[in-house]
Amino acid sequence: MPINLKQIVADRLGENYDLHDRHVNRTLVKVLRTIGFDKVYTRAQGAYLYDKDGNDYLDFLSGYAVFSIGRNHPAIQQAIKDVLDLDLPNMVQLDCALLSGLLAEAIVKRTGPARDAVFLCNSGTEANEGALKFARCATGRDKILALEGSYHGLSYGSLSVTNNANFQKGFGPLLPGAGFVKYNDLADLENQLKNKDVAALIVEHVQGKAVRYPDSHYFPQAQELCRKHGTLFISDEVQTGLGRTGKMFAYQHWNLDPDIVTIAKALSGGYVPCAAFVSRRDIYQKVFSTLDRCVVHSSTFGRNNLAMACGLATLSVIDDENLVENCARRGDQLIARLRDLQQKYDIIKEVRGKGLIIAIEFQQPSGIKAMLAWKALHKVDKGLFPQIVTSQLLAKHRILAQVAGHNSDVVKILPPLIIGDREIERFVTALDDVLANIASISGPMLEFGANLVKAAMSTGYNKNK
Predict the structure, then answer these.
(1) What Cα–Cα distance (Å) separates residue 105 from each residue in 59, 144, 269?
(2) Residue ranges in the chain whose pLDDT is less than 70
(3) pLDDT digits (tens, 9 = 90+) for 134-175
(4) CA 158 from chain center: how many Å?
(5) CA-CA distance, 150 to 205, in Å (whole number)?
């Protein structure tokens, strides 16, 4: 008898967190319960999630930028149905399937003819791993550099160029030859490149964890230094690619010409994992250099038909719905509204971003009572205040947002690129309300923070920050 998923979901919906506590990641379950994020969502559409009572939740997290075109887009659903109806051969491996060729062609049209060789895979970290391997092979060099504050993934190569001790702790030794460059410091970069032993510099043009980007001259000159010293320049566009920053790729803000570009997240359409890295043909051919090395780098599921269909449909939706342009316009609109709040609340230090990857950074408020409360919270956990903000956004206004990183006073928002006036108004109004209630960090909000600290200490959440 075939499995009846609809009946299983109907019968067992609500067991979500108990099942994960027993069989998956019970520490994550504790964290979600501690911060009030243990919601049971039953349906999703566009920029919204829904619970069993029909309450809507505005999604300003987008699955960490996966749902750029919104959730459950009908064009992606139709593409999946079409593939299933066609009964195509899938993952024959010793063949060249049509859909993977079509997706590679579509990607090259967007990255430009200088990069015409595509490797298709499953995730952002896998794309970055492949880019690092290709860089080493093409240059014959061992060293890889990344920027301070970087995040490139959690498998070993990607983790080695992720400048975050919280993610690296307990997993060493990491990849030999990986190192970091001081952020926004061209002199340090040239000093590390001058021995001509660095295979590649890998960069996020807008760093995902802190939503920061360097001075306007940095990336063009960094790319020039890489060319001068024979080092490849890799653009990690896993989170920022496909419109997220208001351009198709973030490197276009600086008119760059990277040697390798990595893509993932949004390419999936939110259904089937899909990723790729695109390189110059000469780099690609130095890896697949002889007939017996034609599969020296491969990925079993990388070219599967469902993923390829999702990728093709996603690119089509981005074009047809003018989502890159909408992202640029709505990003400017949202940042302007948030900067208006900054004038109202001195607890907001800075609002920054490009397109719809935006950071709201907080600082110690000016009032004596609020200042003492701020210091008390930070003594316990340096990331507690933005967690209070996001918890209140969800509890009071049904808005899903995220803390940007460990020991950070930053709330990060990643709305889907389809948002309009209604979503912007709802978010800004909600944040205004939350900040009005916690501007003095007193009363019920301080009590909430104290309870959160107690719960965190009892569950081990604080140890994971």
Answers:
(1) 32, 29, 18
(2) 439-465
(3) 999 999 999 999 999 999 999 999 999 999 999 999 999 999
(4) 14
(5) 10
Task: Decide if domain 5-69+323-464 falls under CATH 3.90.1150.10.
Answer: yes
Q: Is the peptide bond between 273 and the residue preceding it cis, with omega within 30 degrees of 0?
A: no
Q: Where are the domains of the chain?
A: 5-69+323-464, 74-320
Q: What pLDDT was estimated at residue 455? A: 61
Q: Among 1.10.10.410, 3.10.20.740, 3.40.640.10, 3.40.630.30, name the CATH number for the domain at 74-320.
A: 3.40.640.10
Sheet holding 402-403, edge to edge: 348-354, 357-362, 410-413, 402-403
pTM over 0.85: yes
Alpha carbon distance 403, 401 (integer Å):
7
Report strand pairing: 178-181 vs 143-147: parallel
HEC string of the chain? CCCCHHHHHHHHCCCHHHHHHHHCCHHHHHHHHHCCCCCCEEEEEECEEEECCCCEEEECCHHHHCCCCCECCHHHHHHHHHHHHHCCCCCCCCCCCHHHHHHHHHHHHHHCCCCCEEEEECCHHHHHHHHHHHHHHHHCCCEEEEECCCCCCCCHHHHHCCCCHHHHCCCCCCCCCEEEECCCCHHHHHHHHCCCCEEEEEECCCECCCCECCCCCHHHHHHHHHHHCCCEEEEECCCCCCCCCCCCCHHHHHCCCCCEEEECHHHHCCCCCCEEEEECHHHHHHHCCCHHHCCCCCCCCCCCHHHHHHHHHHHHHHHHCCHHHHHHHHHHHHHHHHHHHHHHCCCEEEEEEECCEEEEEECCCCCHHHHHHHHHHHHHCCCHHHHHHHHHHHHHHCEECEECCCCCCEEEECCCCCCCHHHHHHHHHHHHHHHHHHCCCCHHHHHHHHHHHHHHHHHCCHHHC
Please answer whether residues 131 and 202 qualify as being in contact, where contact means their C-beta atoms are separated by less than 8 angstroms.
yes
**pLDDT of the residue at 115:** 95
Cα→Cα distances 459→28, 104, 463, Å: 10, 46, 9
Condensed to tens digits (0 to 9), the pLDDT of residues 358-405 reads 999 999 988 888 888 888 888 877 788 999 999 999 999 999 999 988
Tokens representing residue 243 in the block: 């419109």
pLDDT of residue 371: 84
